[in-house]
Structures are given as C-alpha cells and as structure tokens.
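2024-03-11 09:14:02 INFO receiving multi-entity request
2024-03-11 09:14:02 INFO entity count = two
2024-03-11 09:14:03 INFO echoing inputs for audit
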Amino acid sequence: MKLGITVWNNRISPLFDVAQTLKIVQIENNKITNSKDLSITPQHPLKRADVLAKAGIDVLICGAISAPFTQMLSSRNIKVIPFIAGEFEQVLHAYLHNTLDRAGFNMPGFRRQQRRRFRGGRRNGY
Amino acid sequence: MNSGTKMEKSFNQDVTRVILESISDGVFTVDHQWRITSFNRAAEKITGIPRQEAIGKQCCEVFRSNMCETDCALRRTMREGKPFIDSSTYIVNADQERIPVIVSTALLKDKKGKVIGGVETFRDMTLVEALRRELDARHQIGDLISHNRKMQELFAILPQIAESESTILIEGETGTGKEVLARTIHNASPRRDRAFVAVNCAALPDTLLESELFGYKKGAFTGAMRDKPGRFAAAEGGTLLLDEIGGISAAFQVRLLRVLQESTYTPLGSNTAKNADIRVIAASNQNLEKLVDKGVFRQDLFYRINVMKLCLPPLRERREDIPILAEQFIHHLNHTRNKQIKGISQEALNLLLTYDYPGNIRELENIIEHAFVLCKKNEIDIASLPDNIVPSSGQSPPTSIKHSLQSVEAQTILKALKRNRYNRLKTAQDLGIHKSTLFRKIKKLGIPLPQQDGRFNHTS
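2024-03-11 09:21:47 INFO inference complete, emitting structure
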C-alpha cells in the first residue's frame, strides 16, 4: 500500500491544493518498506490527481484541501484523509498505530465527524 | 507607573479591543514562532475557526492560504521589515470552500519599538467575487450554449479539461452535441492550432475503419495505387474524435487499445510503426459501462478511454435551453438563407417546450429549419411546425406555464403507462411516485385508460 503525505518544513503542508512535496511511503504489513519524496508542481485538480494516481498512491494524508481536488482524487480511487496537522513523523507514526483520529492531529476548526464525508480514511472509522 | 498612567493604558487597550472586535476585517497577530497570539471576531467568522482553537497554533494551519507555503506576505513583512497592502489570495475553510481574501500585513512592535511579531488583516471578498462572476456569467463556451445547471457545471470545468492532455469519454444520446463539445474542447486546448478530426467508428466495417484511421501504403491491397495517410496522420498534433466508439467490433477494439496504450500505429502494408501525438476524445450514444457488463465492449479499452467522463443531458432534461437554442438556429438560418425571421410565436414556443425530442438538439434544429422553410410571416407560428409535434386532436396548445407543466406531466405518465402495459403499480414505481399519487394525477389530468386492468396483461 502506498501512502502519500504532503509535507512542508517537516510538517503536513497546510494546503494540499498548492503543496509542493509529496512523501511517498510504501507500507507492507504495517511496516515501512520504502520512502521517497516526489516534487508535485501541477496546480489544477485534474493534473494533480493524475500525478498522484501515476505515483500509485492509495491513501493521501494532507492538510486543508478544496472540494475540486477531493473530487478528482476520489475519482482516481485515492482515499483522502484531510485536515491533518502536525509533524510528519508523528503523523506517520499515528497512522501506522491507528491513532490519527485522536485530537491533536486535526487542523483547527475541523471536526472529526466532518471527515466522514470524505471517501478517505482507514477501515476502522474514518 | 502612577495610577493615572495605568488607567490610561488600560483604557487604550480596551478601546483597541473594542475596535478590533467591531470591524468586519479579520485580524490576527503572530509571534516570532508564527504562533497565533490574537484572533478577532471577524477572523473567527471568515475562517470558521473559534478563537480558542486558533490561539497558539501555527498561523499557516489556521489561515491555510495558497500563499502560506511559497509567498507568505507576513513572512515577507517580517523579513523585509515593511508592510504589504492588499495582496490577493484565497483560504480554504473546513467546508472545503475557497474563500477569496485580500491580505495586508505589518510588523507588530512594543512601546520601545522592538518587533514582537506580525499582524495580518484580511477581508472576505466572496461577495465581490460572486458579483464579478455574475457579471462575467458565461452561458456560452464556443458553440455550446446553455442555462441548464448541469451544463453550467460542465462549462465551469471545461477550460481545465481542455488544458489537460487526458483522454475524454463523452456520453450522451444521439443529437445532444457530442461532436460540438469535442470541438469546443479542442478549440480551448493547447492543440487548437492543429487539426480536429472526427471519425464515426460505427459507420465503417473493420477493414475500412483500419485503413481510414491508420492509412495504407501503396500496394497494401488491390486498388491501393498510392500511399494514403489516415485520420491519425491528419490529426497529428491535434485532436481525434472517435464517435460511436461503442459500435466497433471486438477485434478492432484490441487494435485500438494497443494504439492508445503505445501511442503508435502502423499503416496497412507498412512494417514501421508511426508515433501518434494525438489527443483522443471518444464519444458514445450508448452507456459503455453497460456494454462492458454485457461483454460487448472490452473492459481494458473502457478504462483506457474513461479517464475523464463527460455526460451530455438529453434536451428533454434541459428544456430551459429550447428558446435560446431555437433563437440561435434562427439567427444562423437568417444569415445563411438571407431571411429576416424575428423569432417564434408564443404558441409555437409552448409546443416546442412540451415536445420530447427523441433526436435531441439535432431534431430541434431540423424542426426550426422545417419551420423556416414554410414560414410565411416574420415569425415562426404553429402552422409552420412539423405535424409530428402539433397535437393531432386539434386542441389548442397550452399557453400558460401551468398548462405546459400539466401537458408534460400527462405525456410522461401516459408514456410510462404504455411502457408498463398499463400496470398502475409498476408505472408508479417506474415514475418514482406512490400509486395513490399516480391515480390522483390520472384522474386530474384526464388520462384515458384501457378497460382492461394492466395486472392481467403479463401473458401478452
């Protein structure tokens, strides 16, 4: 499974729409097997979604994201876990240990139940 | 500090707080670590974030603007020590909406002039943007014209789709304007200066289609006297529309899939493959997904062309466009036929609005052309319209909106009844209404029913 996380200054990038770095983490049996950075420059939703789909991303963790981007990613079967804030390492650790949904990683103003609207998330409740 | 000075300072702070809380511009301040130290009422309202959640958080994670990562105005102010006024940007709120704002930034200093952080004020420009959009509202892109909501949504994403290189699948009933849409996409794309080539795939048998698309070399078959470039060669650098793609044979689907995957094709009788720099738009009047389910259309080819699917609604689902389309056709015919028809009479328009248009826009165009030929006045009236859309009973056409709606309702119910062999329960289910509602409407609209009960017709 390939996890994509948009990162800026070692934190989750505040806005996916304009994020420039995507960390791609390969996870097998809940263990990281590979990790690399991908520079993402295209700005409009269609191209951006194409770039992520081409990179084989299954799940995306990002900060704020506007609706057209979510729609395009969903149409490419990429699950989106949006409005996450925090240090990259801590977020990745929380994702692997299934604790990302706990308070502390939500962006200000974002309620947990709002995330249920998205196709994003893991099987256990997002 | 004496008590008078203290009181004065406290008074000034209170005044500042009241002013900040009463203004409609959002204001927040940050410290040197970019943590929010104050957040006014308007900032709460514009961002949708309560003050207590914002205070202490990184400003970029609260403000979430498109400038944060690359061109933060506040960062520039802190670096260069000077204010920036009215930078345009947008922020994204928790509802995933983009809110256009203009931003001004300045340094925040204490009484001794020491920089203690920065201050950012921002103004919600949503209303201004909405008004600007209203003024620029586009009901037309290229030859496409519509007031319909679904079409407007399509118009909104069309420039982005045109700009991308993705393969597009256009689905829509016959006559809904698939080729017009494909041409519009081509004209708005970076390939607009190159050729747009349309091929009707269902019109030709396999062998002809292959030579038509890929071309052939001299001597490839009897009668091939010279090299002939195909439609792929003609569309090089441009756009190729493969219309009625659902009608191609299983064998040709395999060949086409290979061409689309490898972006190369081989002319008949040639040994060397040619590169194809072509944007492919596929169109179908059938639901390709259903054809895949039936096993008539290859799944892999379907996924290859279904990168971006656009659905054109039939004309009966965008009746609001009938007057504007009719007007466009009259305008066009006036030019080509050198006539001066001013428009359509209200009665004739009412009839046009209630008709179902199985042939969609193409049928409307033909109706207008028919009327144009027969029209003796400067306005198209009922007498000039084709017989099939004029009620045979000789009853006068509905003249009010209420009557028009009732007429459409009656036609829809009657068609559903016929479709379900006059079984009322099935008809109600088909129409998505309760059977009592159906009975009430049949009675109210005076829809004639056969003597026999539809429930006993199954054996027929």
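2024-03-11 09:21:48 INFO post-check: Residues 119-126 of chain A have pLDDT under 50 and may be disordered.
2024-03-11 09:21:48 INFO post-check: Chain A is about 25% helix and 25% strand.
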